[in-house]
Amino acid sequence: MKITSAKNHELVAGHMLEQIQSGAWQPGQRLPSVVELAEQYGVGRSTIREATSALKATGWLDVRHGGGTFVKAVLPSDPRHGADMLFESAGSLAELLEVRRALEAGAVRLAALRRGEPELARLREAFAQMRQALELGDTAAGERADTAFHMAIAGAAGNPLLAGMMESLADRFEATIRQTRELRFYREPGTAERLLEEHAGILDAIERGDASLAERRLTAHLDGVLAALQEAIAGGKSNLETMNKNNKIN
């Protein structure tokens, strides 16, 4: 089945969800590889990764590090379209993101001024892991590395109280990173590469010791994430079914 539309990832996600809901793909079943799915749908691998990211975020798929992608053994009980649930959670995510923005804007300024070689090494290692995860198409590893990068900024600020506040919120911040990555992957093709570039810019500013530039780049990064959330809130529920009617799967 070939997909022909500017919204390839949405159409692929919609058809994959139909495969699960119809029983064509059973709970616990391993899906074909990214390469195989890309060939079946006639799209690029990044499109398949964006589609599976959306279905993972909404509870339909389980992506295992080094082990492939599987239909969840226990499927979501909510009968609504899976993507709708992701967008409806955007409001609470936006609140958490605002807290992250407020804390990290100050942390990144301090990090640029106070970082030493050990702190830079930690940041570079987290960034290298993000890049490797992108190359391998490992979304779970990318999420972990993204979280590690932002926590490394807090550590580089040289303020134990600030670092402690970030650590105390680590689990919730990790959840926002995971879910907002999934949301951006779903709504914006090419997001993974763009996110890597944004983190590269933040790292560059910290390495330079340019506090103002570091803050601008970090807030621009988080503002982009927030904009995607606000768009989801304004847009309401997913329009996948409508798009499938207007863009037939052949």
Automatic annotation (TrEMBL):
Against PROSITE patterns, the record matches this protein to:
HTH_GNTR
Protein name in the entry: Transcriptional regulator, GntR family
Q: Which residues are the signal sequence here?
A: none
**Keywords associated with the record:** DNA-binding, Transcription, Transcription regulation
Q: Does the keyword Transcription regulation feature in the UniProt annotation? A: yes
Q: Recorded GO terms, molecular function?
A: DNA binding; DNA-binding transcription factor activity
For the HTH gntR-type domain, which residue ranges apply? Answer: 6-74
Q: Which SUPFAM superfamilies match?
A: GntR ligand-binding domain-like, Winged helix' DNA-binding domain
Where on the tree of life does the source sit, at the highest rank? Bacteria
Alphabetized InterPro entries for the sequence: GntR_C, TF_FadR/GntR_C, Tscrpt_reg_HTH_GntR, WH-like_DNA-bd_sf, WH_DNA-bd_sf
Q: Does the keyword Transcription apply?
A: yes
**A Pfam family annotated for this UniProt entry:** GntR
